[in-house]
Amino acid sequence: SQQGEEDPQALSIQEGENATMNCSYKTSINNLQWYRQNSGRGLVHLILIRSNEREKHSGRLRVTLDTSKKSSSLLITASRAADTASYFCATDAIPFKTIFGAGTRLFVKA
Amino acid sequence: DAGVIQSPRHEVTEMGQEVTLRCKPISGHNSLFWYRQTMMRGLELLIYFNNNVPIDDSGMPEDRFSAKMPNASFSTLKIQPSEPRDSAVYFCASSFGQGIVQFFGPGTRLTVL
Which of A53, A58, A73, B23 is the most buried (most CB within 10 A)? Predict the structure, then answer.
């Protein structure tokens, strides 16, 4: 079974709005990552947050991690049409075995 | 520097045929992963190698699937014989060390008729 479960499954917003995606996982982890996948492409790593961190920023991305609730959120601020993609959380409780969630499909309307 | 290279990008074959997917990891990376992505099952880890050695192939669905990594710059995933339910996008990814941050190739879209 998948370790990470994203919520919502799909999200449609207007350009300029913020997009928030959530991820819940089941077991203790070492790190949590977020990846983006554009249609027809491979996944691209966005950001990694370690289990002892609570918040991390990278450009317009903000990731939070709550290990007590086994959950994470990805916030994309001031979204752009180019942010249209699927976003996956990935956890690695065991070395080498990164487990990806089912993903959130984000559609940003221009 | 080139990213992970996969070939072919698209493969259409008939049931029962042998299919070979190829991957060239990023130079200097010592871990390589094969994934399969479908709408129903999402992204599944099939097998991974570290320093060219297969570490865990528990994700390989059946004996029809096999993977090799003869050297640090090349890996293959073979399906023999192929079946329609093998239709999916197959990704190769590479990383340095324990594979925490992985770099994905563009994928091979396989269709088995």
Answer: B23
Residue A35 to chain B, least CA–CA distance (Å): 10
The answer to whether the beta carbons of residues A101 and A87 sit under 8 Å apart is no
In the sheet where A71-76 sits, what is the strand order?
A: A5-7, A19-24, A71-76, A61-66, A55-58
pLDDT digits (tens, 9 = 90+) for A85-98: 999 999 987 777 88
Return the percent helix, strand and coil in chain A, to nearest 5: 5, 60, 40
Which two tokens mark B47? 């097998």
Note the pLDDT tens digit of each residue in B48-99.
999 999 999 999 988 999 999 999 999 999 999 999 999 999 999 999 987 7
Closest CA relative to residue A89, chosen from A4, A11, A27, A1: A4
Q: Is B60 helix (H, G, I), strand (E, B) or coil?
A: coil
- CA gap A105, A10 in Å, rounded: 5
Phi, psi of B20 (to 5 degrees): -125, 120
The answer to whether B100 contacts A99, with C-beta atoms less than 8 Å apart, is no
How many angstroms separate the CA atoms of B61 and A24, rounded?
26
